[in-house]
Write a structure and sequence with these properties.
The protein contains eight helices and 45 strands. The chain is an alpha+beta fold. The chain folds into six domains: 65 residues, SH3 Domains (SH3 type barrels), CATH 2.30.30; 61 residues, SH3 type barrels (Roll), CATH 2.30.30.40; 67 residues, SH3 Domains (SH3 type barrels); 69 residues, Roll (SH3 type barrels); 108 residues, Immunoglobulin-like, CATH 2.60.40; 189 residues, Zn-dependent exopeptidases (Aminopeptidase), CATH 3.40.630.40. The strands form eleven sheets. Strands 15, 16, 19, 20, 21 and 22 form a six-stranded antiparallel β-sheet that branches. It is globular, with a radius of gyration of 26 Å. The N terminus is likely disordered.
Amino acid sequence: MRVIRPRSLCQLCFLSLVLLLLFFAVPVFAAQEGIVKGSIVNIREGPGFSYAVRTQVKAGQVLTILEEKNNWFKVCVHTGQEGWISGDYVNQILKKVIVTGSTVNLRQGAGTHYNKIGQVKAGQVLSVLAEKNGWYQVLLSGLEEAWLNGAYVAEQKAVLSTKGYVIITADVLNVRQGPGTGYALVTKIGLHERHEVGEVKDGWYKIKVKDIEGWVSGEYVQFIPSNSKPEEPVEHKQPQDKIQSGGQLPSAVIVTGKTVNIRQWNSMEAPVIDQVKSGDALTVLSSQSDWYQVRLLNGKTGWIASWLTKSLDGTTPSRDSIPKKEVLIVPIATGKTFIVVDHGGKPELVLEGWAASEYKIRQEKERKTLRFELQGPSTRKYEGKIERLGISKVKVYPQRDQAFVELEFNSLPEFKASATDLNRVTTIQLGVVPGFTKGLRDKVIVLDPGHASVQPDGSLDPGAIGLRLKLKEKDVNLAIALKVKKLLEEAGAKVVMTHTGRTGLTLAQRAEIANNLQADVFVSIHADSGKPGVTGHTTYYYAPEWHSILAAQRYERQKLATLVQRELVKSGGRRDVGVREENYAVLRETRVPSILVETAFLSDREEEILLSQDWYRQKLAEGIANGLKAYFD
């Protein structure tokens, strides 16, 4: 008989709850939850800042709270790891409620005399942080807080009979047998589909897909009550070429207005949910009535007036709008499946049932083979091929407590993997493009001038400062980046800057620009500082073994760094410090090939003088641009 030994308090809590339900028939209450409110927050081994960091969590991530001690919470994260987080960086959730009113106002405080700051609609599930005089303080998407009247909501535990329909807001959404992620998967539906609602329970909607009934999570749908009045878009005059004809969408747009509102739906009367600034890059999901539905860096989705943007890539269709077709489905084990999807001629790989920490990707045999190592026992064996996607061999086999999937390609794939993980369903998009064109033309390149972040006192992070001329690194980085941008655009590339002089973005959000755009490469430009006498050019990359996506890009990242370093040394003429691997945030957080370039040393008097001169900045820019050209050739 196999004995199961719980390895963590999370598992023990779960087993205890089950035993109580089965044997003692006493009321069981859900474990308390919290939502991370810092940008990136450390989970530590004990209740204090002196303890070692065990892992990290991001803003908006939901944690199970196990205990509290001196304003520190012991929590369980989604991977099953336990640790401690400061109470200053987590919002405790008292309960969850479902909006029952057709449209309910959100206010700055607990009462109608406070200013209205937005609205929510029937069926929306909200986390309650506090209660006062019959009003609830609730947490909205993007970690904004607001108050609403408790008379227009019901506790999530209640079952509501609801008439209306839902519009799917996720690219792919699982439909399950019951209202929760623990229920079996029955089918999948896609972005913008509409389905009639039978009932609502625990924040889940019961729908019918063809002849199949199932449940979908309220977090990934918009509920439209049957008695609600459709919003009428306000007409505005704008250039006719902003929304492209032929059913094609740009994959991304650049904001052209100085400060532009992002709205809840496609109307000037819709509530403002966020703002973007000139030069910001946004991923386009759909369009309607001269509006784009876009995804922001913080993960929010909303609508922006198309006449306040310009297309990044002409008539290139958004990958979200290209039809998908599953061409291979291999059940690995109970609840775990490996799927290959034909996404407009590009392979898309779907791992169902594994968390991001439970698989690895390796690139082998001169990079023509991708090898997946999937945790968990399996007996599945399979061999075949998928000629339509250029995959000459697919092999699935078990080994000890793992399953292995090998994909061998006919020719060298342009491996540019990006991954999204939703409810233990990971989608990996591969940049294997039939007829891949060499050169810089039409390549999407994100340039990140280092530093210049807005500080708490309103000043800008200067980076390193020169010893002799007191030259600020942020100014050098921006000047070189703008010259690189000009050179790349002259060669036909599409260039996006993370900022043009000042930014409120975190380092992770700078990287997210490249991820959202599915850019071809990301380049962060810096000037170095060190001990007196240290000089030269350095280029960094990062592709650790433990990170499945980055490890699979190791060859591409090394190649990019090596070629840029080679050309930088040729053009800049200083000492070749070499290519190095380092865990920098912008390299760790990007999901496309990325490098960080240290152009020269501000701490060296001679190199500071060089960095202050326009002709030398131009030489450095030419070196970086030539390295990128060599990479794509």
